[in-house]
Every structure is written in structure tokens, then in C-alpha cells.
Amino acid sequence: MKKALLISGGRSVSKSLIEKYSDRFIVVADGGAKTLKKYDLSANLLIGDLDSIDDASLNFIKEKNIKVTKFPVKKDLTDTDLCVEYLLKKKFDDILILGALGTRLDHELANINILKKLYKKGIISKIEDDNNEVYYVEEGSYTFYKNNKKYISVVSTSDETVYSTKGLEYEVSDLKLDFDNPSLGVSNEISDKKGEIEIKKGAAFVILSRD
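Above: the chain sequence. Below: its structure as C-alpha cells.
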């Protein structure tokens, strides 16, 4: 299995979280170079239009001899999506995305929806930072293990999502989420070492989070 780590230009994550996945092929989306410089870390490749990189970060990239693939500012895809397209072209089948959440809500929503695109292509993927883990799921059973992120939420992405649980604090059977009750699946907890969510209809984001 070919595994990749994509560091985007959103809210910075901790050095320890990046190092947890340092054995992967590392590609950086434009402004993510600031995170590399902050922690004096290297990467295999930087992709973007370089409009979000200051001179200090750009000099750092050159000093580290990190390969750069530059795109024009006027382009159809975000820098993060350009990185994803590169990884798909190179046949990576496990893509972890860090730094994809932050203050730009438009970029954040676009990044989260990349998970759906990757799921449809059969790619293992998630978005993670120090407070959240985000997964996209469709019909099937999924196991999640208890960690330092206390809450587990199911947020529907379809007109109707029906799911059941095992091993959660608040167990549900065939719970229906739709536009009339979108928050019913928010803020559950894994009661033991692991919990299971079975999506019986529709699709959803499963989010593990902590305050």
C-alpha cells in the first residue's frame, strides 16, 4: 500500500502529529510550507501557485532542496486539490490530510468534501488535526477506536442517512438523520475501547473531536 501525507495551508498542526506520519511520502500544498519551516521539517514535494508562501518559507524550501511544482495563480483547483490529483496520478491508495481545517470556511468545506471524492475512488483517507479526525462513509460498517478525541459525531451528507451503533455511550438503532433533525448524531462518545457505526442508508461524515 502506497501511503501519503498531505500538509495543507490551513490551521497549523503540532510537530508530533506530523512526525507520527513521517514515514509516508510527504507533499505540501503551498502555504503548508510555513508549517515545515516552523518545525524545521522536510518533505518530498511542494505543489501550488506560491501565493501563500512568504520569502522566509520559500528560502527554507530551497535550503531543504524540496522539489517544487508551480502552477499559475489563475487555476481551476485549489492547491490542496492539486496535491490530491498528483497523489492519485501516482497511485497512492492511502492519503492522510493535515492542515486542511482553519479560518477559511470555503477552503475547509472544499477540503472536507475531497474525502468524498477519494472514497468514490476507493482511496483510504481522512483529515486530521490536533482536535479533529474527519472520515467520509457510505453504506457499510465502520470501527472507530477510542483515543484522545472524546466525541464522535455522525453528520449526514445526503437527504436522509440511517445508521445504528454498537459500543457508544448513546446507542441508536436505525436512527434517521435528515434536514429536519441534522444534529441528532452529534456529540456521542465511544464507551469502551472501540465503537461501531453501521450506515444503512445514505452517506455521512464521521467526526472524532475534542474541545
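The chain has five helices and 14 strands.
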